[in-house]
Specification:
By secondary structure, the chain is α/β, with parallel strands linked by helices. It contains 11 helices and 8 strands. It has a single domain, classed as TIM Barrel, CATH 3.20.20.70. Bound molecules: 2-phosphoglycolic acid.
Length: about 250
C-alpha cells in the first residue's frame, strides 16, 4: 500500500532561529515514533545544512524546492544548485514544476522534464507539481492541462531512471495560498484521472505512485481531502510553517 506523504514547502520563508524552533517542535512531537505517514520538509536551500543536522536520525526527511535545469553536477551557472548537490546533502525529494516556478521563472514543460530527469538520475525522488488556473478550470480544461504537464515528463524520461519512483502533487493554482481549497470530490476526480494516465505507462507505477493534493491544506480541512481513495498525502505551503498545523495534517494523513 502507498504510505501517505505530507510535505511542507516552506517557499522563501525562514531564518536560522525559525528553522531551529520549527524543527525542534516537530522532532519533539514525533519522538514517540510516529510512522503512519512520511513527513518531508523543503526549506530554502541556504538552510539545508541546518535542516540535515537537525533531522538526521529523526523520522522527518528533507528536500529542495528547485534545481538547475542544465546538465552536469557543477558548472558556470551563477546562482544555481545541482541535483548532485541536493544528493550530497542527503535530500530524499526534490520539488519540480511548482506553479510559482512555472509562472515566474520560465519553467516550461520541457524545462520541467529536463529537471525531472536530472533529479531521478541522482537517485532522488522528483515531486512533480501540476495544476490548472481558475480560467482553465472554468473552461473545462483541467484534464487537458494536467495530462499535458504529466505527459511532457513521462513521455520523455528514460524509464530506467524511474526505479526510485516519483510523486505527483496536484495543486490547482486557484487554491494555492488563497484559503480556497478544492472540494474533496474535485480533488478525487483529478487524482483518479492522473492515476489512469500513469497506468498507460505502467500499471505497477500507477499502483505505487503517491499523488498528493496541494492548495490551502490546513488542519481543519485535511481529514476530508486526505480521506479520498486517490489522495495519498498533501503538499502544504503556509500551514507547514506552523508546527502544530503541520503535525495535525500529518496525523490526518496517517
Ligand atoms: P499553500 O501552498 O498550502 O500555502 O496553499 C501550497 C503550495 O504552493 O505548495
Amino acid at each position: 500500500m502507498r504510505k501517505p506523504l505530507v510535505a511542507g514547502n516552506w517557499k522563501m520563508h525562514g531564518s536560522r532561529a525559525m528553522v531551529a524552533e520549527l524543527l525542534d517542535a516537530l522532532i519533539t512531537d514525533l519522538s514517540d515514533g510516529f510512522d503512519t505517514s512520511e513527513i518531508a520538509v523543503f526549506p530554502p536551500s541556504l538552510y539545508l545544512s541546518q535542516v540535515r543536522d537537525a533531522l538526521t536520525d529523526s523520522p522527518v526527511v528533507w528536500g529542495v524546492q528547485n534545481i538547475c535545469s542544465k546538465d552536469g553536477l557543477s558548472g558556470a551557472y551563477t546562482g544555481e544548485l545541482s541535483a548532485g548537490m541536493a544528493a550530497d546533502f542527503s535530500c530524499t525529494y526534490v520539488l519540480v514544476g511548482h506553479s510559482e516556478r512555472r509562472a515566474m521563472y520560465g519553467d516550461t514543460d520541457s524545462v520541467v522534464a529536463a529537471k525531472f530527469a536530472l533529479i531521478a538520475n541522482q537517485g532522488l525522488v522528483p515531486v512533480l507539481c501540476v495544476g490548472e488556473t481558475l480560467k482553465e478550470r472554468e473552461q473545462n480544461e483541467t484534464s487537458t492541462v494536467v495530462s499535458r504537464q504529466i505527459s511532457a515528463v513521462l513521455d520523455s524520461v528514460d524509464g530506467s531512471l524511474l526505479k526510485n519512483g516519483y510523486v505527483i502533487a496536484y495543486e490547482p493554482i486557484w487554491a494555492i495560498g488563497t484559503g480556497v481549497t478544492a472540494t474533496s470530490q474535485q480533488a478525487q476526480e483529478v487524482h483518479a484521472e492522473i492515476r489512469k494516465l500513469i497506468e498507460k505507462h505502467s500499471s505497477d507505477m500507477a499502483a505505487r505512485t503517491r499523488i498528493l493534493y496541494g492548495g490551502s491544506v490546513k488542519a481543519s480541512n485535511a481529514m476530508d481531502i486526505l480521506g479520498q481513495s486517490d489522495v495519498d498525502g498533501a503538499l502544504v505551503g503556509g500551514a507547514s510553517l506552523k508546527a502544530e498545523e503541520f503535525l495535525a495534517i500529518s496525523r490526518a494523513a496517517g
